[in-house]
Write a structure and sequence with these properties.
64% helix; 3% strand; four-stranded mixed β-sheet; Serine Threonine Protein Phosphatase 5, Tetratricopeptide repeat; single chain
Amino acid sequence: MKTYARLLMACMLIILIVFYSAFLTRKTDLANDDIGRHLTNGRLVFQDPKVLYTNYYSYTYPDFGFVNHHWLYGVLSYWLYLAGGFGILTAANAIVLLAAFLIMFRLAAKGSSLLAAFAVSLPVILVLTERCGIRPEAFSCLFMAAFIFITCGFLRKRTGMIWLLPLLEVAWVNMHIYFFLGPAVVIAFLLQELAEKGRPVFRDRSFRTLAKVAVAVLAATLANPNGLTGALYPLLMQGNYGFSVLENQTPFMMLGIVPNTHITAYLFMLAAFAVAAICTIRQWRRHLGWMLLAALSIAMSLLMVRNLPLFGLISLPVICLAAERLKRRRRLYHSALAAFGLATAMILLTTPAYYVLPRYPGIGAVDGSEKAAEFFNSNNISGNIFNNYDIGGYVIFYHFPRVRPFVDNRPEAYPAGGFFSELYIPMQSDEGKWQDAMRRFNFSAIYFRYQELTTWGPPFLARRMNDSEWGAVYADGSCIILVRRDSYPGLYMNRITKENAPERLAPMLGSDDPDVATYGAYLLSLLGRSDLALQVFEKSAERYPGYIPSLMSLADIYGKSGDPAVLAKSVRYYEKAIAAGYIRPVAFSGLGMSCMKLGDYARARSAWNTALLLDPFNEGIVSYLKSLDIAEAAQAAQAAGMAAASQMP
């Protein structure tokens, strides 16, 4: 029997590890990830301590104060990179995340059963895969799991391993900003002991030991280069956060961007959490520590999508604890466990494969990710560049210190008011502000990543592509490089133009990756070759049904026509994008405009009202509704006039 149980456990673990690893083994997109800056931190931190205290990298605000709370992660990552490149970094990241999951899986199995832990793990893994990239938060997942495991072990067996926690906290406070979860774990279970045993617990030696450990862990948060400021930084960072980044959005906001297995699984787990709370509420004293951690993880996950992995890890043992109470009702118990497997299958089967699986499966960096940097360096492009937010880490990794970025993906490293709201965003939104920035910084080149979800980035790129002062000289599946005519006349002469674009962009247009092909078609449309762009978009939409970028691109291009038949196509593609899960104001706004042009005022109003519901402060949509009021009034007046004329003798 024991042999059978062990074999069953081994099979379950293998299934879960393979399932999770399918998402963890993804190549790193250096043009979008932070890892380039972390590696540069690791390379420079012992050469120049300013890396620990200042912005350091950008030429716009190099001396602006910055608390580098992840420098140790950079050092460790750099050593691994020297040992085996991006391949070993991918493997190490996967091992860390798998270790965190397996620790929580073991706790879940101990608190309930192996079968319950296996069933609940299936949707939990979908939640965890929201954040699979090479990031320092992987260690927060591992440290949190280790803190919980060691603390729970101490409460059961009173082991001396509990004194490892202050040492782990010293490492944690220098690796990721979520180090505050260490004290939170110890204090949560300390309160559980107090609630369960009452005042006599103060005479308990183990309780006093745990209290001392809690104090030691809190003191360990001061063991960072910035001292008290570093220890309090989780409370202070958002005070200077002048840029809204995707990972800091709520899960409900993310749900409407693309079909998202992680958010759907998260909502299912939230519902399971609610049921678990009902099942365990009568024994709240016994499970107070878990309940407090569950409440904290729910609050954090509701605020920011980046917190979903923490929620997923804590939800696994908590829900299994609740499942244990259903064991006496066997039919209900097995039905509940089957629901987790069924939910996972439904989520996977109802989501297009390219929104489920990693875009670049494998280990290491994305193939050809260094080519843009090689082009930049081989052509000796230098001076002040303008780059957008996402690609800052790429610029730092490949070009610092020869070329410094204008901005990088650390909002807290720049003054919230003086930079993002008064410079970075206005200079892309307003052509006059761009000219002011040109005079101030004398840009020689533009380094731009396509995948911009902002309202200002794509229009800015469109204007530069049609600006005779600038020429696009390089483009691939991740980014585009433009040079200024007066700074690099030779390169400018060899720019991508309307005439040579089909040939220069051929590798992108013929790519099997729908994103790369779509970006190539997008550039074609910017250069005035909408005819060819439409062919690529149509082919992509046919090959990948429900692929939102192609659907939205087709809807937008067709929506610019005045031909009713073409406008009808625009409406159809907007509706397909919305049906595929793109519940965003821009989709309903575009749908309303196409319906307005067709004279379908009722559908236009419905679409714009929905857009306004999603974005209540969008003045553009308000103005559209006002223009619709005028058009409807004119239509009514015209109809009344015609009716009156028909009644005249």
